[in-house]
Specification:
Structural class of chain A: alpha+beta
Shape of chain B: elongated
Distance between the termini of chain B: 45 Å
Structural class of chain B: mainly alpha
Number of strands of chain B: 7
Largest interface: A-B, 41 and 52 residues
Strand order of the largest sheet of chain A: 1-2-3-4-5-6
Radius of gyration of chain A: 18 Å
Radius of gyration of chain B: 22 Å
Helix content of chain A: 10-25%
Shape of chain A: globular
Strand content of chain B: 5-15%
Largest sheet of chain A: 6 strands, antiparallel
Order of helices and strands of chain A: HEEEEEEEHEEEEEHH
Order of helices and strands of chain B: HEHEHEEHHHHHHHHHHEEHE
Number of helices of chain A: 4
Helix content of chain B: 40-55%
Strand order of the largest sheet of chain B: 2-3-4
Strand content of chain A: 35-45%
Oligomer: heterodimer
Largest sheet of chain B: 3 strands, antiparallel
Number of helices of chain B: 14
Number of strands of chain A: 12
Chain lengths: 199, 358
């Protein structure tokens, strides 16, 4: 067996290295156990994200992974797929209109808000907001609010990795519903294209 | 009088959005001498101590002044902070409805209005965010171009092409400028990202200082402004094309308030493709007598396609532009009344001006 598979394995490693060196992705760039990679080539991008910019955020301490598909200056049209790369049979989620932010920016978000297309937007007022764990994936979502000086605010959604898979919990108390198996399957090709870079 | 000085920093902090009394470049361009902007007090032709920085009756500048937190009212005179300024003779003359306005002026007005609606603050050419926030390498400028979405590289390349010497001069020691220049010239997003992350890690202050410099250069700021308009104007153009298909006569000429409302709709909702049939039906059934009435249908139908929590907000913004004043909208039991001092730019007969070149 070994003599048969060794060349194939070497070829696989070689091709990945060359592809990355060609700049297909930037990164992964890791801060603590939270890593980000940016997709630079449309060759890797498949539906439902054709025509979008793609960013991957993942935790090294859990299987929590997200694929963010975004269009510049149109965050409302973003689509983010959240899944457990260590348990692909577990529940996955689709988030519309949100933006990934690194948990390393948490302290700055509390005081300065979230940088938005036209300026800083504060976080929405909540009675108590949890501090994210190191390496936790976060998604923020903009919404209108009744204020003259700050007409919009951002809600925070936490991706929580537990023994039974992932959940997504909002700071408003709202939890996100998981995708159906059929809907999650639409992400399979893109997820598989990117899997080799997530390490 | 020349030489007057207020006992505070010459330039306010960047996040106030105020244009400083003095800026690099020729006097009269985007500074206190510019007749088109409202800015900080500085030297005046009068005696020192009268309506200038030496005036003892004025309050000290403070970054917590309410005037720093909101968009500047364009109807106030350039040196009006602290005074109830009288309008100039030129601004008091009501424009005739038949007057035209150049497209670039209309775009400038539209951008100011939308910026103020979005953030409640004026445009910030020096807005800067590092990679530690959202993993896009860095974000910069009035609409936060970034390397991750490959929008900042092309913008910086335009600046480099416009004035390579001035662009290079913005980047001091510790910024590894040559690597950036090579990446920009090659259009290599991967190397742009790598440069941004490396320089932020090695010398964050130098990186920050470089982009403060870029954002204080008039030539580069004009490129920012043009690029920002270029982001939304094509969408506005597509909307106008669709509206002309629905009614060539109503939309033969585009009024300033219509253009600004369409521009704002494109900033927030990106177009009208998902409500064309509703707009077409209502215009056919209701037969609006004017472009203004037709536009009310357009913005209303598009607002109602938004998520329920956004509808009142969308409608208030666009109706505010069309009517030239804050407009209270209620949709799905949510009420919004978005205020915006820049609405005066499209109020009254001014809003009925025809935009040339559309």
């Amino acid at each position: 067996m070994f003599p048969v598979y060794k060349p194939a394995a070497l070829l696989l490693v070689w091709s990945c290295t060359v592809f990355a060196a060609d700049g297909a992705v930037s990164g992964p760039d890791c801060a603590g156990s939270l890593c980000v990679l940016n997709v630079n080539t449309s060759k890797l991008i498949a539906p439902p994200c054709s025509g979008y910019s793609v960013l991957v955020g993942f935790s090294k301490s859990s299987g929590a992974t997200l694929i963010q598909c975004s269009k510049f200056a149109a965050a409302g049209e973003n689509i983010t797929f959240v899944y457990d790369r260590r348990n692909l049979a577990a529940k996955a989620f689709e988030f519309h209109g949100g933006r990934f932010v690194r948990s390393t920016a948490w302290a700055r978000m509390q005081t300065g808000g979230v940088p938005d297309t036209f300026g800083q937007v504060p976080l929405c007022a909540v009675s108590k907001r949890e501090t994210p764990a190191e390496g936790q994936l976060l998604i923020v979502e903009k919404e209108p609010q009744d204020s003259e000086t700050a007409p919009y605010c951002y809600r925070v959604y936490y991706v929580v990795a537990g023994q039974n898979g992932l959940t997504i919990h909002g700071d408003s108390g709202k939890d996100l519903s998981p995708l159906s198996t059929k809907a999650a399957a639409e992400w399979t090709r893109l997820r598989e294209n990117l899997a080799r870079y997530i390490r | 009088m020349a030489g007057s000085r207020r006992q505070t920093p010459l330039s306010p902090s960047v996040d106030t959005g105020h244009i400083p009394a003095r800026t690099p470049g020729p006097l009269g361009v985007n500074d206190q001498g510019d007749p088109n902007v409202t800015t900080l007090l500085g030297d005046t032709p009068l005696s020192l101590g009268i309506r200038d920085l030496g005036d003892p009756t004025l309050p000290q500048f403070s970054s917590t002044d309410p005037s720093n937190q909101v968009c500047i009212d364009p109807t106030r005179n350039p040196l009006s902070i602290g005074f109830d300024a009288k309008p100039t003779a030129a601004s008091a003359v009501a424009p005739q409805p038949s007057e035209n306005i150049a497209l670039n002026e209309a775009q400038d007005i539209a951008l100011k209005i939308s910026t103020c609606f979005e953030g409640g603050k004026p445009m910030n050419y020096q807005a800067l965010e590092d990679d530690a926030f959202d993993g896009q390498g860095m974000s910069f400028g009035i609409i936060q171009w970034n390397f991750g979405q490959n929008t900042l590289g092309p913008l910086l390349k335009k600046m480099l092409d416009a004035n390579a010497t001035a662009f290079k001069a913005c980047f001091g020691e510790g910024t590894d400028y040559d690597t950036l220049e090579k990446a920009l010239k090659a259009g290599n997003k991967n190397n742009e990202m790598k440069w941004a992350r490396d320089v932020q890690n090695k010398n964050h202050d130098a990186w920050e200082s470089a982009f403060k410099n870029v954002g204080s250069n008039d030539t580069f700021n004009k490129i920012q402004r043009d690029q920002a308009v270029g982001q939304y104007h094509p969408l506005a153009g597509a909307v106008i094309k669709e509206l002309r298909k629905i009614s060539a006569s109503l939309f033969a000429n585009i009024e300033l308030r219509s253009y600004a409302a369409i521009f704002d709709l494109c900033v927030q909702q990106h177009g009208i493709s998902n409500c064309l049939s509703e707009i077409k039906k209502r215009i056919k059934d209701e037969k609006p007598a004017s472009q203004l009435e037709a536009m009310k249908i357009v913005v209303g139908e598009r607002a109602r396609k938004a998520n329920s929590q956004w509808r009142a907000d969308c409608l208030s913004r666009r109706m505010g532009i069309l009517t030239g004043a804050a407009y209270e909208a209620t949709e799905n039991e949510i009420t919004a009344k978005r205020k915006n001092p820049q609405l005066s730019l499209v109020a009254g007969a001014t809003g009925a001006k025809i935009v040339s070149g559309l």
